[in-house]
Design a protein that fits this description.
The complex is a heterodimer. In chain A, 24% of the residues lie in helices and 34% in strands. By secondary structure, chain A is α/β, with parallel strands linked by helices. Chain A has one domain. In chain A, the strands form three sheets. In chain A, strands 5, 6, 8, 10, 11, 13, 15, 16, 18, 20 and 22 form an eleven-stranded mixed sheet that branches. Chain A has a ten-stranded mixed sheet with strand order 4-3-7-9-12-14-17-19-21-23. In chain A, helix 3 packs antiparallel against helix 8, helix 6 (158-164) packs across helix 7 (166-172) and helix 9 packs across helix 10 (445-456). In chain A, 57% of the residues are buried. By secondary structure, chain B is of the alpha/beta class. Chain B has a six-stranded mixed sheet with strand order 6-9-10-3-11-12, sandwiched between helices. A four-stranded antiparallel sheet of chain B has the order 2-1-4-5. In chain B, strands 7-8 form a two-stranded antiparallel sheet. In chain B, helix 5 runs parallel beside helix 6. The longest helix of chain B is centred in the middle third of the chain and has 15 residues, at 96-110. Chain B is globular, with a radius of gyration of 18 Å. Classes of the chains: A alpha/beta, B alpha/beta. The interface between A and B is medium-sized, with 25 and 29 residues.
Chain lengths: 485, 250
Amino acid sequence: MESEANNILEEVTQGDYKYGFVTDIETEYAPVGLSEDTIRYISTKKNEPGFMLEFRLKAYRHWLTMVQPKWAHLNIDPINFQEIIFYAAPKKKKELTSIDEVDPELLATFNKLGISLDEQKKLAGVAGVAVDAVIDSVSVKTTFSETLSKHGIIFCSFSEAVQNHPELVKQYMGSVVPYTDNYFAALNSAVFSDGSFCFIPKGVRCPMELSTYFRINAANTGQFERTLIVAEEGAYVSYMEGCTAPQRDENQLHAAIVEIIAMKDAEVKYSTVQNWYPGDKNGLGGIYNFVTKRGICKGNNSKISWTQVETGSSITWKYPSCILLGDHSVGEFYSVAVTNNYQQADTGTKMMHLGKNTRSTIISKGISAGKSNNSYRGLVRISKNAINSRNYSQCDSLLLGAKCGAHTWPYIQVDNKSSIVEHEATTSKISEDQLFYCQQRGISAESAIGLIVNGYAKEVLKQLPMEFAMEAQKLLSISLEGSVG
Amino acid sequence: MLLQIKNLHAGIHGKEILRGVNLDVDKGEIHAIMGPNGTGKSTLASVIAGREVFDVTAGEILYKGKDLKKLSIEDRAREGIFLGFQYPVEIPGVSITNFMRTAVNEVRKFKGLDPLPGGEFLRLMEEKKRLVEITSNLTNRSVNEGFSGGEKKKNEIFQMAMLEPMLAILDETDSGLDIDALRIVANGVNKLRRPDNAFVVITHYQRLLDYIVPDFVHVLFEGRIVKSGGKELALELEEKGYDWIKKEQK
């Protein structure tokens, strides 16, 4: 029985990565390797104002003094930064005069990925989703920018924001994740090439979902993007992020930064479905996803909510966090992290309670299969002044098969007596009883696992916007079909 | 003949539990299998359903003339074999609606039918819920999670109603039920009875058979059917207990 289950596991977990194709586009590259020249090259390419170059160089010089952290429960092959190309941009063909100045080849690529960059295609009655499409180092198209601007909302690529709203960029960039924060944040601050910028003015509820779709296409290239979201007093926005990459034998580095600022009474929901190429069944290739995501609830009654479904990447190292500065502010973290084959994930969150009566919720669901390792690492810190604060954490691990690992490292620090911190954790396996029950009703073992895993992850999946929820459910089933032992 | 069990030997981890079971079940019939604890009643049900922890060491099970050995658990189910569990398992986060929709559509796919459209599925569900006297919110809850004993068993009968099996095996469906729940469960079975399907009701006590009247009663003892008869056999067992059978066997 055991061996039969393992057979099913092997058979199905080798399911193909759907997004592994490469688009043949003419690409312009920075010279390989990293030096101050590389940074000047990027800054010049982007025609950046002086303060940007200065920021980058400071970050680079700081990065040179740092060493790659080793505390995560990850085995990372050494990264040779001199072999990475830090900037790759699809060459613009001649200027097109039609509605889209986007290379049709690129449009086709995003269509193939299921991302529509055509504003006309929006469904009747559906609010629609505004997309910023980033390929390799540059944003190629942001949809609905004009519609949104009628509400005073700025939604554009980071590069455009640097050109058109330098004062906002200057004010907020690095204010939540300073370039000194960590090794990969410093690297990103030095070489980041694009990303999304989003500004919701006072009192505005963003009328549609905003999203950024990241695609790595070029080989031997790192992707370093930066996203900055500012919600002014009373503003609301729901933001989604998706990503894929071609199937390659080499590892590729993706080191991003996301910063969120929520003012008084503002709310930001940030959802991620991360589906970077995970490497093959023997652990060859795949993306190193080393990301720093952090939001600050600056004003009273503000709220930041992170939801992530992590199925891809060969190595994931990320801890979307909240600094709860405003009184009565709320931080949430909902996560499903799936690892299969040789994937490794060390992911979790930090909730820093600084304001009074602040609340945070952490729901983390780890699913490990194959020979993978899946770790939850979280910090809940309640400072002396954060009186009457509350945290509830729930960390569940589901093991599929006998060769995978699940680990939980919760750190809790409470510096006052009026706050309450709760932590619950469970580890379980899909039982033979559950499978037999499903199969006896005519459900195949594969569908049964999909059903059980989706049920297990439901608390997190229901936090996703509708547009994402279906995709995430399918993705979970595909990532794990048949993986039982 | 719908089900033919011939000299069935089966066990678990090298320990023999069934030692030569013979049983014929035809369409339109209700069979009751009774017997003391630990004589192999649940094992027999699990083996028919194809549970892999049990090894069939000798004999055969023919279902509609086909050797069941060649069919996977899910294919047996799709061919119309239903097992009502003694201890239905919990599946957190999966609503009964979602669970049943998956099951019904996989069975339909097996039969070459398109999935049932959402509206039709919901209508079917409402109809079957009434049959088992299920209140409306039960189907929105996760499968068996936090259910009372009675709710779990009603849910089993509800699923049976949804899947309309040819052969339904109810494994001690009466255990842990109060008299009202017992009546509801039994009513469900009676309403689902048709000339072209059959029921095998495994029970410890005679009381269920006051509500579901069997055509045949069998006594399973030490892995064999040692006595068969009509419904009066159940009454005799109720009166005399199983000691009488045990003595007879020695």
